[in-house]
Amino acid sequence: MRGRGCVRHGARASQAFMISSKTRVLTSLGFLGLLIACGLSACSSKSDGVGGDASGGKGGTDGSSGSGGKGGHSTVGASGEAGEANPAAGEGGAGGAAGIDTGGAAGAAGADSGGEAGGVGSCNANLQIDSANCGRCGHSCGTADCSDGLCYAEPVLVPDTTVAELTKSGYNQRTFFSAGNLYAWENVEDSTQTPDLRYRLLRASTTPTTLPTKGTIVQDIPDDGSAPYFVNAVNFDATYLYQCTTAGGTRVALSANAAAPTVIFKAPVANLECNDIAIGSTALFISSHDTVAGKDTLYTIPIASLGPNAVPTLVPNVGLRDNNIFALTVVGSDLFWMENDLSQNATPPNLVTAPTAGLAPGAKPTKIDADLGNQSASIASDGQYLYWTDTHGALGEVRRTKLPYVPGATPEALLQNLDALDPGILMDANWLYVMEANNEIGNVIYRVAKDGSTSDTLGIAFVHDSAQHKGLQMTGVDANYVYFLLFDGIVGRLPKRP
Fold it and tell me: How many CA atoms lie within 13 A of 89 on its CB side?
């Protein structure tokens, strides 16, 4: 990374410290916090017990031993308590043995089973490079490498072994996550088939018995000028993959095996140029570029009306816009998207919103945020807040605003001073997950608390081999891992805890 100081949180969060060249972020509960709390000592022991029935001292919170309690005159002193475990420094030391001398001699000191932060812990491993104990004891990188206490990506899903080469431009690779399965959509060149250019969708369980796996082919269709023509936007829900083509829209069931897609709507104009598909509870929304009008457009079609003869219509008083529209997202009854004026290409995009039902004549979409950088920006929501990424100059950050949006509300910065961010924001109950496009050490995966109170570096989205596979976009998160797309169609993962 550049010499930029440190990763900063928003106004409510200043508890993170940078401790390595790979920008590892610790919260206030880390080892440095212990040193400060103990007056910059290692908290190596507690005081001995005093008196005939006093307990021995606790083992130190950094894993070192505590002293045994003294036995009182003609009285057996109680044994010392076990040391407290500290994830940054190893397990706590055992408590001191009971004093048994009637003269009141001290009991023996407890055994030291702990370790210093960043060094050798109670697992007797080098926490900087041991992939089974990376950064702390028991933190496994799986089959992947550990360096400087950070995991590197573990490959989970790889392209079909018959694929000779993947195209890597535009919308040629997308990944999804649903119900314990990974899905990788690819526009691939396959030298073993004619025609050799194909749209292929692969499925693989997130708990494969062998890593990595090539997955099961869900869809395998030619791109030879026949239906579905050129696919230039894809999205999915829990049941289907949706594809927007120059001729219209198609979908294929995620549970299928080597299936052909079904046509679900016709293109409303000739040579439809889709940018995004957004899936609402009752309707689909499509952003596209109208080559005839020379404007970007927003179309909608009810899901209940999908069929081979259905045609999307413009979102009322919103649809035809002289703007470059991307990152289209549906949250409840509202649309959110990024746009910039095509007549002023140097103008950074704005984040705007409008009702899914459209606007009254003459009304304009509401602006939420401005100057948002390039088209790698992403939008996500948990229903309570809207989250998005943006790039100001060369610096990336994560922001949020409360829903429903109140016009004029000031966005809140959760994570700042990153390099530019790659597409995708993932979330679970408490955390957001994003990927930094770092060109020096491989793309970095961060998690940040939804309230911005703390953040961590999870590891590096990079698989080192002859091809140097680097991260491209976020894919999904489950109870144990964060998943993401790398170059050449590989889906990798990292443990979701640092």
Answer: 27
